[in-house]
Amino acid sequence: MKRRLQTFAIVLITAVVTYVLTTYVYFGSPIYTNKLATNPKVSKVIWLLKKYYYEPKDINDQKIVDGAIDGIAASVGDPYTEYFTKKEFDEFMIQSKGTYFGIGVTIEPGENYIEVVTPFEGSPAYKAGIKPGDKIIRVNGINLTAKDIDKAVSLMRGPKGTSVTVTILREGSSKPIDFKIVRDEIKIKTVSSSILENNLGYIKITNFDENTPQDFYNSYDKLKSSGCRGLIIDLRFNPGGLLESVVDVASNFLKKGQLIVYLKDRYNHKEYFKSYKNGDTVTPLVVLTNKYSASASEILAGCLKDQKRAKIVGEKTFGKGVVQQVFDLGDGSAIKITVSQYLLPSGAYIHKKGIEPDVKIAQPKEYQDKMNVPINKDLQLQKAIEILKSEISKSKF
Known about the structure:
Blueprint: H1 2-27, H2 30-37, H3 40-52, H4 61-74, E1 82-84, H5 86-97, E2 99-102, E3 105-109, E4 114-119, H6 124-128, E5 135-139, E6 142-143, H7 149-156, E7 163-169, E8 177-182, E9 184-187, E10 191-196, E11 200-205, H8 212-225, E12 230-234, H9 243-250, E13 259-265, E14 270-274, E15 285-289, H10 296-306, E16 311-314, E17 322-328, E18 334-343, E19 359-360, H11 379-395
Parallel strand pairs: 11-12, 12-15, 15-16, 16-19
Antiparallel strand pairs: 1-18, 2-9, 3-4, 4-5, 5-6, 5-7, 7-8, 10-11, 13-14, 13-18, 17-18
């Protein structure tokens, strides 16, 4: 009986120690966490705000909780670790999944009003007659200025089959024009392609979401069917996106088993991502980058450069070499935490350093920060075309 009690005691102590150690490793010291949650200074600040802040309507428990969590996330000093309220998390998921319900336009702030960059081909806005350059001044009768981008997005989105009235100013029209548009499911277009001179293929990727790999594959398949002899992949102004998506895209140009990228976390655990298929290892490739090419776009450019599969043309990339994981907090909100760093096949860690291009070339001064540049003025694209022509010419002999 005594031995049994001793055994039970050992098991119990082991379980408690294991719980404490596990909690400490994964969640921090439980004692410290408890102190933080019951910190008298925190409690006093909340009490003082509720008692003395001059606008009581601005104080509520949810706003205090959101603000506190936001501050805790910001305390690590990492711009990529951030707290999402439910509304913010919903928007984040839309960007990741690549679909939403709305009218299908990309917009940007203009000098005074919100301007339409482009309506998605086949979208409700496209069918209704919205054009690039149109200035949105009202949505459902609510006046908007260039500062009201978020409000405009919120007003134009809504359940499928419902209608929204968008009022625009159009150059050449003497008065505003109302468009009554029925919302539908919109697939965010992250991939566009075309055939350039000398049967050179061009694919632009604006972001890596869930739909990007299939859209990229379809676009490249069509280009090859059209007789594409070389390919330019444009990653300029691409801020990144999903790791799984860029691994899929990279696999189209590597041998099965070739390393694309690997991750390393705080415990020095490593996770390797390799090409899962035998892709096209023959077609000459050039990748365009600039200072806004970041994260997943740097993984694609970096792995193709390291594996000597492509030449990089343009400017040094942004330099984001860390990976985030999203944790659902159970009430619709979430926190995104930087959990690891990524390294290229060569072992290079490019965080805050970026990737140097093989051929460094800047755009003309008037186009350095513009996305839409006429082909004949796009010095980086023209250089890519020149390189591909030369490589194709050499391969003939």
